[in-house]
């Protein structure tokens, strides 16, 4: 299994991961730009992945029907390692490698694996993706890229690189697409109804800018089955998984909603009209009874889609 690779970090590290779009509320980044400080995002990324654990568990159980006894699982763009450790839990006979471009995030992953008792079969791989995957000691039986592929400029080339590091008969699974999350009713009782739909539209523009500014960015039709097939893989299939945390949301879900809307305010708030900015400010003010911190109708509803394909024997 690959061990810790302490390679120099480069400017592209900030683009090597994460929990994301589509619904990819820019739970990344601050300000109007598209640069992402992943180390600064660590706590939020961990909290979000923990909240979404029921969704990930269903996705991994689905994968487990196809990939029954993997020897090596690689989590590409692992971030703080929440999903990496879920793989270690679900596949107790597997070795798991968390691969990422951020050493601070891999530090979180190692700490989590040790705390949960997986350290003896858990490794990390530091380096720019997808090139760092060449450092793996042997091919993967299962490779997972959970909302990390869209942070690589040339997605088609990245998929080909992922496929090269699969063992014959190995499975590549990417989580991309789905539906934007929803947290609130359409009519809040103040402001103009439908603010989340307008935030989605602005976020879609932000995401397009982020993609265009990536090194070696290539525009690509997001037909994931076709892209997986173009990488030489077979038997492409897709399935979506739902996270449904109904109102009244528990405290940790409220914290996630507040953090997500707060980052949206930082990222695209300048593009909102004055009324929507005022509405968002009320939603984020913990002193306001109408805020997401207090109102009883806050929920979390999201859908993520997983696409898989297999390297021919």
From TrEMBL:
The keyword Transferase applies. Residues 1-35 are annotated as: Disordered. Residues 1-19 have a biased composition (Basic and acidic residues). Residues 20-31 have a biased composition (Basic residues). Residues 74-172 form the Methyltransferase type domain. One of its GO terms (biological process) is methylation. Keywords: Methyltransferase, Transferase. The keyword Transferase applies. It comes from the Bacteria. GO terms for molecular function: methyltransferase activity. It holds the Pfam family Methyltransf_12. This is Class I SAM-dependent methyltransferase. It comes from Streptomyces galbus.
């Amino acid at each position: 299994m690959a061990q810790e690779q302490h390679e120099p970090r480069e400017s592209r590290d900030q683009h090597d991961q994460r929990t994301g779009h589509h619904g990819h509320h820019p739970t990344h980044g601050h300000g109007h730009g598209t640069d992402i400080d992943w180390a600064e995002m660590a706590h939020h990324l961990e909290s979000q992945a923990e909240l979404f654990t029921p969704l990930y568990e269903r996705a991994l159980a689905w994968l487990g029907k196809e990939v029954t006894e993997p020897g090596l699982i690689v989590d590409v763009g692992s971030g703080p390692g929440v999903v990496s450790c879920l793989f270690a839990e679900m596949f107790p006979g597997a070795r798991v490698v968390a691969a990422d471009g951020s050493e601070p995030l891999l530090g979180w992953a190692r700490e989590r694996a040790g705390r949960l008792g997986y350290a003896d079969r858990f490794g990390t791989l530091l380096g720019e993706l997808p090139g760092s995957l060449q450092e793996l000691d042997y091919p993967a039986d299962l490779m997972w890229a959970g909302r990390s592929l869209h942070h690589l400029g040339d997605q088609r080339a990245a998929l080909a690189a992922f496929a090269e590091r699969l063992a014959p008969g190995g499975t590549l699974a990417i989580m991309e697409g789905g539906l934007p999350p929803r947290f609130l009713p359409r009519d809040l009782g103040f402001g103009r109804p439908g603010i989340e739909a307008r935030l989605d539209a602005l976020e879609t523009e932000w995401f397009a800018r982020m993609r265009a500014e990536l090194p070696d960015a290539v525009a690509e039709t997001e037909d994931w089955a076709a892209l997986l097939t173009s990488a030489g893989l077979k038997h492409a299939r897709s399935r979506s998984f739902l996270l449904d945390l109904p109102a009244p949301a528990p405290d940790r879900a409220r914290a996630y909603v507040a953090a997500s809307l707060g980052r949206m305010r930082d990222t695209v708030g300048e593009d909102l009209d004055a009324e929507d900015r005022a509405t968002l400010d009320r939603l984020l003010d913990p002193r306001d009874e109408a805020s997401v911190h207090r109102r009883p109708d806050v929920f979390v509803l999201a859908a993520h889609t997983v696409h898989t394909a297999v390297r021919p024997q």
